[in-house]
Amino acid sequence: MNFKSISVIAFVFLSSVNTFAQTKKYDWKEASEGGYSYRYVSNDPTNSRFYTLKNGLTVILSPSKKVPRIQTYIATKAGSKTDPSDHTGLAHYLEHMLFKGTDKYGSKDWAKEKPLLDQIDALYEQYNSTKDETKRKEIYKQIDQVSGEAAKYAIANEYDKLMSEMGADGTNAFTSFEQTVYTEDIPNNVIDKFLAVQAERFRNPILRLFHTELEAVYEEKNRGLDDDGRKSVEAMFEAMFPNNNYGKQTTIGTVEHLKNPSLKAIREYFNTYYVPNNMGVIMSGDFDPNEVVKKIDQSFSYMQPKQIPAYTFDAEKEITQPVVREVKGPGSEFLFLGFRFPGAATKDAQMLNLLGNILANGSAGLIDLDLVKSQKLLGAGAFPYVLKDYSMLILQANPSEGQSLDDVKAMVLAEMEKLRKGDFSDDLITSIVNNEKKSEIARNESYSNRAEELMDAFTSGVDWSTELSYADNLSKITKKDIMDFASKYLNNSNYVAVYKRKGVDNSVVKVEKPPITPVTVNRNDQSLFVKTIAEMPENEIKPVWLDYNKDIQKASLKGVDVLAVQNKDNELFSLTYRYDMGKWNNKLLVIAANYLEFLGTKDKSSEDFSKEFYKLASDFSVTSGNEETRINISGLNENFEKTVTLIQDLLKNSVADQGALEAYIVRLKKSRTNAKENKNAIMEGLKSYAKYGAKNPFNNVLTDEELSTIKASDLVNLLHELANTKHQILYYGPKTTNQLVADLKPLNTNTSFSSVQKAINFEELPTPTNQVLFANFDMKQAEVFWFRNAELYNQKYSPTVSLFNNYFGGGMGSIVFQTIRESKALAYSTYAYFGVPAKKENRYSVGAYVGTQADKFNEAVIGMNELLNDLPDAPKALEIAKVSLVKSLASDRVTNAGILSNYLTAQRLGLSTDIRKEIYEQAPKLTFVDLKAFHNKEMSQKPYVYCIVAKDENVKLEDLQKLGEVKKLTLDELFGY
Predict the structure, then answer these.
(1) Which residue range(s) make up the domain with 637?
(2) Which helix (H) or strand (E) holds 805?
(3) pTM for this one?
């Protein structure tokens, strides 16, 4: 679960960092065009139109011409908050079922399928009401048997096939407390097809293939039980909202309710909430709103409005003393503090967002400067969590070495006291407005971001004009307003504290594996509806490829290569100093890059630099990877010279601070300890071990003893040397190349540069025999990753690799997903791929993944191995994979700074032209025979390294030994410290 603050829009023009221009008015207006009336907000930079159709359906359209694609959301204002109390999790698994089709698609013979589905309905009702476990098992056997018969008439993932054939990306959905949202990113020439499918999707959804999909939800539940962060957030909501379903039930639902589903209850929920006056269609992209609203109206006019039950709840009582919860798990310790606020549509909710920025904005907030920059804590932040009924401010803090969570809490509460007293910079609000201006421009660059913000406002009941006027409202707020607001809502007794402690959670009861017989997925069948959609006309979109000689301007600045792309859309810029050196050249470089954050110069402290960057609405970062180091700055064009001067001053004139280094090393050691308590980090260590062997890039780090001997002067000297080392300049912004070079010339004083020192060469190892690399971790799931190094990069493979990955292992319509999840219900998450290397000197790799319940480990491994050894022939799936790939490429547009990234990627692979053109032209010519030959050559009957993270007592050693030679690795071996 991610923290999601209320989306805010700022659109003010500042003549300087401390001067406000005249504010704009954001008033609702009405207009009519093309036979439809709509509302809009004056001075709205998104040019959004808000329609309400005759049946009550909300349509929000925001045109944007830059890319011939459309981000779509179909949102229902109902989520887990409105789940029946005896069927929690229902909204979420209904979301899953709306991918299963209707009586018109998803079935090869509806007349024969329907009686069997009716039997399954009745059996689930019987199962739901039966308490005797022996009888329940007998009923479930019948469910499994009849489901297998029904599946013979079902066509799995036909929805995904429909969308793939259109060239859609991001086919997905999500459920939250008060929203269930279905999302697609489509080429703009398939809008008619898209609307035909969506209108049918919500007409009469059929709950087919239910027991295998419910097993996927079980898997998702078990993954949540292994997620300390998710459990902690749920504990926060439970304590904060005892009277509201925000806290009384979770989105995923209880184990008991997941074990006892009711298809009848699911249909009742759908019929209650999936009605036009409770739904919205939100689109942003390249289209004519007059045409699109008419098409949406025609497609969804069959929907009839109904009265929606009002959600009622008892108001939460005031918290008068701290409410404390504890969560245990294998991950590192942290603290959540939560304060309750009014709901999304209130002025206080907008004020909450400002409060969060004053506390923590990543640069110059109270917590940023007092606790993170000063290195008193390992990490800390503030996150507004805005919902319809109530909102929260959640503060997260991670202890450094030797700190208790109570110590951490005391430090965070001290920052609340400073907020109440007004102990923060007077110009901080002005700085926040500057940054909102920049953020708003950046959000408007993306049609997908526009659509997301409009969707959030719709489901949360937030007035769009209020969103747009946020920055103007900020300009009227005084320090006293903030102090009064903080005093009202934040004190030392009205919070919820969640202590995430390291330990065993004995309260966790996982969802046990039910016996499921694999069902058929009928890959090669196709409904008449799908054929009808495929025959609908669509205008051709002409592909646009990059021409590296035209699309990138190249220049030289005192011996430094400059690569530039002009931003003709807005006033944002980004500038990167790129070095062909990293941790492989010098292990100290990554330490120095991170240490820079805590340094100042003779004239300015580290805190001064953070404040100045934030005042300028500029960001800076120094990142050092294995083979590359980057110094990045970005911001507003009007502050370009000041920002460049500031970063160069810091880099060239930083002074050693031994105290800051010692504090940083303590925190670094703690973060490294925490990494050993993170299952994802452990898996990354196993993958690197599989690729390179015992000595690999992942554990190519300094030991704790070596860290303790580092001198501050050595790191500062390394940073100063970096400024004098040969590099590239990458620029995206409003300046022409000539202007850029002219403006940088007086700022770049170097006239000669030292060469990059030689790097360690990590050789990718062959995979001669099967091997198992096992790491023990306290978790309910077992995660398995198959890995092998293949041959060296070869450009001619690109079309085959792209088509193969589309067909075999990517997306819900792929062979791997349909087999492992849809047919066999062995995993919630699964995929496979043939991986393209980063450089032409590197090898391709084969990767495959299954995250499954530990008791399904053997079945899951066998299922994936069967696919790796024998490629199924699915002609319809291959045809769809080809069409999907071609349409995605035709409507794809590489823009902005992405042009530079694309060029650098091509350079590393030895390419002089845009490889997408070759893929577009050659992939459609490939046959299954070609893919089969490729699969045989690269995957079938090949040895693999099995990287496995699981609790050792849940996976039998003899089962591991059947796969290959077993090597149980310690965390010290994996991490190198």
Answers:
(1) 553-656+711-744
(2) helix 798-808
(3) 0.93
